[in-house]
């Protein structure tokens, strides 16, 4: 495990954007798989997943529900091509520009900028971009934003605010990325659940 982590850190140092994109994509896909595992094994399904299950049972009643890897691929693409580049620029360019001096209060300043500037914009873009990847109409995106934006943003702040504080203040530097990825895995599972929670009446492009 130690060697694997060292190799990953070496790749991150040589090609930070590319390595971050791939790792974020993998975490996004695994987060969706985790969400589906809970849906399948604990009967905790969002509206869309329930409708898909009913549809599958009508077509093949004896067929057991399996992981939908096409759905996981959508999260991989979202994190790789959209989320990771945005956060890379934010953490390597924007935050150092806005909070250039490292002091005892700089962590709080970074948290404020992160949660009040980046988080609202990213969550606002999440549903339209994910729906675009899956070929779902913009009308559904508008409904998603109207119904889910504030609860998703609130959950983001409740998760990443404390997690970032713990990461910056308590975690050793060499474990900060690992801790962040661990939190991201479960938050991506939450985003997968939120994305798939609506009536299965979708107008495709």
TrEMBL record:
It is a multi-pass membrane protein. Keywords: Membrane, Transmembrane, Transmembrane helix. The lineage of its organism: Eukaryota, Sar, Alveolata, Ciliophora, Intramacronucleata. Belongs to the peroxisomal membrane protein PXMP2/4 family. This is Peroxisomal membrane protein 2-like. The chain crosses the membrane at residues 74-92, 112-133, 175-193. It comes from Stylonychia lemnae. It holds the Pfam family Mpv17_PMP22. The keyword Transferase does not apply. One of its GO terms (cellular component) is membrane. The keyword Transmembrane applies. It comes from the Eukaryota. It is found in: Membrane. PANTHER family: PEROXISOMAL MEMBRANE PROTEIN 2, PXMP2 MPV17, VACUOLAR MEMBRANE PROTEIN YOR292C.
């Amino acid at each position: 495990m130690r060697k694997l982590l060292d190799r990953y850190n070496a790749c991150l140092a040589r090609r930070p954007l590319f390595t971050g994109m791939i790792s974020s994509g993998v975490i996004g896909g695994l987060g969706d798989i985790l969400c589906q595992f809970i849906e399948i094994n604990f009967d905790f399904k969002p509206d869309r997943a329930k409708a898909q299950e009913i549809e599958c049972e009508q077509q093949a009643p004896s067929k057991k529900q399996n992981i939908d890897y096409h759905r996981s691929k959508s999260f991989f693409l979202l994190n790789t091509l959209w989320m990771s580049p945005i956060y890379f620029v934010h953490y390597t360019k924007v935050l150092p520009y806005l909070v250039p001096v490292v002091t005892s209060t700089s962590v709080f300043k970074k948290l404020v900028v992160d949660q009040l500037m980046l988080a609202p914009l990213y969550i606002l873009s999440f549903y339209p971009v994910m729906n675009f990847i899956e070929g779902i109409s913009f009308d559904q995106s508008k409904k998603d934003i109207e119904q889910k934006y504030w609860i998703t943003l609130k959950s983001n702040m409740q998760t990443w605010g404390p997690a970032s504080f713990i990461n910056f203040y308590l975690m050793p530097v060499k474990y900060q990325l690992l801790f962040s990825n661990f939190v991201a895995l479960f938050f991506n599972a939450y985003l997968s659940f939120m994305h798939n929670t609506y009536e299965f009446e979708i107008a495709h492009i």
